[in-house]
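WARN retry 2 of 3 for item q-0093 after timeout on previous attempt; input resubmitted unchanged.
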Amino acid sequence: MALADDIKAEVTKIFKDQWSRRTGQVVPEPESISLSNEAVEFEQATVLYADLSGSTAMVDGKKWWFAAEVYKTFLHCAAKLVRAEGGSITSYDGDRIMGVFIGDYQCTRAARCGLKINFAVQKIVNPALAARYPDANYSAKQVVGIDVSSIRAARTGVRGGNDIVWVGRAANYAAKLTDLDLAQRTWITEAVYNRINDAAKFGGEPKENMWKKFKWSQHDDMTIYGSIWTWRL
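OK item q-0093 returned
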């Protein structure tokens, strides 16, 4: 009963305590937020999720070390590119990575990052994979989801084992966009699309829109945009 009483008391405390809030200037580290009801607020932040598609089938059908190498190469590329575009890596979750972009041109930088991840998977990871394992009959494929909204960061967990939870539309929608299984590898909401500059919207010669408009049936047919394009590194 001691453990149950302890959990019950903490749950009651969390629901009862008032929240303290402060405006965020940088993406916080867990240690900078208390485990009490404290939140760091961002009026606008752009969240990117990059997810490796079909990883369950890969784990079921391939050797563990093959899957581990695919995970590591994909996550390495995604992490390097998030940081190169000025984003902060906020979590690794199995075969996915979450990045948060704040400040000027955050939507443009996040969208460009998604297109660069597509380039890295198609032009770097898969050629290296095919060269090392020519008989594997496997190609890595990813989906990136991006949204922008106001968002709050809070610290959750227990002492010695905790992390930051991001509360706001952008975190949820960006993650849900990675569930889409179409040809498009990078997905952005209309809110992101309306904020990216023309260089991140139009490519090729002559210029054409790199983003195709869709209705997101899982979310009340809201407008989203998907892209099959890559951005050369």
